[in-house]
Amino acid sequence: QVQLVESGGGLVQAGGSLRLSCAPSGIIFSIDAMGWYRQAPGKQRELVASILSGGSTNYADSVKGRFTISRENSKNTVYLQMNSLKPEDTAVYYCNAQGKDRLWKTFSSWGQGTQVTVSS
Question: Residue 67 above 80 pLDDT?
């Protein structure tokens, strides 16, 4: 199985920055896409940012210009650099990875979630 370990969440003042990381464990053949989702209380989980194996990225309109997703390919680790944080960014952030495991089986794994709280 492929598991994702997330870290980097916390409490920060508005205008501050945080960097989330997502580190896969397990033997992975390839990762096709990784992304960060978030879910605020009472709201639907939404895609924040994603990155494909070719390097293309996609961002939610609400975070464009403030958040940056990146990958360290040697470790298959994905990061989400969050700058100019706003109170409305407060949510539980979840990492997702999709790809093929060592047996060429498609997987889609989720991290446990990390809390990001932005105070006003």
Answer: yes
